[in-house]
Amino acid sequence: MVEQTARLDTVFHALSDGTRRGMLQALEGGEKAIGDLARPYAMSFAGASKHVRVLEQAGLVRRRISGRTHYCSLDAARLREANEWLRRYERFWGDRLDILDNLLRQEDEANNT
Asked: What CATH architecture applies to the domain 2-112?
């Protein structure tokens, strides 16, 4: 359980940055060179590589080196784990929103009578 918690912490930390989320989104279409991942953010290879390293440590990305080019690919298994954790709270929030909806309807009915 502690190991899973640490993995989730690492995943959510990696996902907390918009640049890294954008990089993951770019990788949905397949493998990309780090330079290609950096281009939309006008950042250096070193800057992009730091972001990729965080994604790698979270288990969200795999890196392959061919010559001088570093290629990244998406590894969605950890995203699946994070999604499963979040889904446990989906019912909680759904129930709360249903309660709020009922209260608002009752208030509207009381104001219209």
From this structure: Orthogonal Bundle (1.10)
What span, in angstroms and rounded, lies between the C-alpha atoms of 42 and 40?
6
- List, in sequence order, every residue forming a beta bridge with 69; answer none if it has no partner: 66
- 105 sits in which H/E element: helix 77-112
CA distances from 78 to 9, 10, 46, 59, 93 (A): 11, 10, 25, 6, 23
Answer yes or no: are the C-beta atoms of 73 and 61 closer than 8 Å.
Answer: yes
H or E stretch including 86? helix 77-112
Q: Please write the tens of the pLDDT for every residue from 65-106.
A: 999 999 999 998 888 989 888 888 777 777 777 788 888 888
Please state the domain extents for the chain. Answer: 2-112
Contacts of 22 (CB under 8 A, 6+ apart): 40, 41
pLDDT 10s digits, 9-27: 999 999 999 999 999 999 9
Question: Which of the two residues, 2 and 49, has the higher pLDDT score?
Answer: 49
